[in-house]
Amino acid sequence: MGSIISKAVKMPQSLPSVGMLKMKGLSVMGSCAYSDIKTGRMYLQEHVLLVVLEGVYIVRHGDEEYPVRKNEMVLLHKGIVIDYEKYGEEDSSHVLDYMMFFLKDELLHEFMKISNFPSSKLEKPIPAAVHSVNERLLSYVASLKPYFEQPEGVQDELIKLKMLELLFDILDADEGLMNQILQLRQQRPTNIVEVVEKNLLNPVSLEDLAYLSGRSLSTFKREFRKIYNEPAFQWIRNRRLEKAKELLTHSGISITDISLATGFENVSHFSKVWKKKYGVSPSAMRNRSAAELVEG
Predict the structure, then answer these.
(1) Sign, Cα dihedral of 99, 102, 107, 109
(2) How far is CA 275 from CA 245, 282, 293, in A?
(3) Which of 38-42, 151-155, 250-254, 267-271 is the least confident region?
(4) How far apart are CA 78 and CA 81, in angstroms?
(5) CA-to-CA separations, 25 to 13, 140, 141, 184, in angstroms, rounded
(6) SS3 label, residue 53
(7) CA triplet 123, 45, 225: central angle to 5 degrees?
(8) Where in the chain is the domain with CATH 2.60.120.280?
(9) Which residue spans of the chain are classified as CATH 1.10.10.60?
(10) What fold, for 192-295?
């Protein structure tokens, strides 16, 4: 088994330098264009509204797949890992053009304060879906294009106003999508075991897991210890190391790829905690396992 394990890059923290508008503590918007097929994996640290202007951007999460095409958009909630494939189509000269709007909770709270949208809780979760982009939203996106030419000259207050304008345009265009956005603010407590098992090998922090479970960090840690009889950080690190040991001894995957596939941020940290637990480096254990296999 020698396949490459792709790392789930944290977004927007590790957003490639493509064309960005950043505002301190609130939001990031990115716009970029490619002509060739690109694939990858992202861990979303913020809610994302993906708007495709040209080409195709396919998002996969678990068993779900969302192909987003020209003049379409999809809303993705934070705290999930997605795989993507993006490319330009032949009839548009293979151009891919899209924008990603990262919607922080603070922005959504402020919008709800100043809008007349009802804040009553929705009983059933609304599943993610691909929505059409109407002319008003297309005009809004076009109005942002000049800002990407000199992003350093755009003031934070203007970006904030433009992000609020986006939400008002969505409210006017698609109430169903706005209901999805409303649900992002209604994080409900989720089974801790389910959250941990689902995200064990993803590059998530305890803060991320607490958010996904709908709890504060201190409450998450306290309830985790009651369930697992061990501090969360220690238990998660040990489970990741056990999975890494399985991959190292039963596959030909490189040590770097194993570290990325088991939720570690980098190979140096992985090697450090590995040696602390097992007493030898990952490469030494692999060599020892290979020698034992030959002798056997």
Answers:
(1) positive
(2) 12, 7, 22
(3) 151-155
(4) 9
(5) 12, 23, 22, 18
(6) strand
(7) 75
(8) 8-183
(9) 192-295
(10) Arc Repressor Mutant, subunit A (1.10.10)
Distance (Å, whole) CA 22 – CA 20: 6
- Map tokens 């202007």 to a residue: 53
Q: Which amino acid, 288?
A: R
Pairwise CA distance, residues 147 & 78, whole Å: 26
Q: What homologous superfamily does CATH list for 8-183? A: Regulatory protein AraC (2.60.120.280)
Q: Do the beta carbons of residue 102 and residue 163 sit within 8 Å?
A: no
Q: What is the DSSP letter of 283?
A: H
Q: Looking at the DSSP assignment, which residues form a beta bridge with residue 267? A: none
Q: List C-alpha distances in Å: 60 to 39, 84, 86.
A: 11, 6, 11
**Residues 140 and 166: beta-carbon distance below 8 Å:** yes
Per residue in 54-99, pLDDT tens?
999 999 987 889 999 999 999 998 777 888 999 988 887 888 889 8
Average pLDDT, the chain: 82
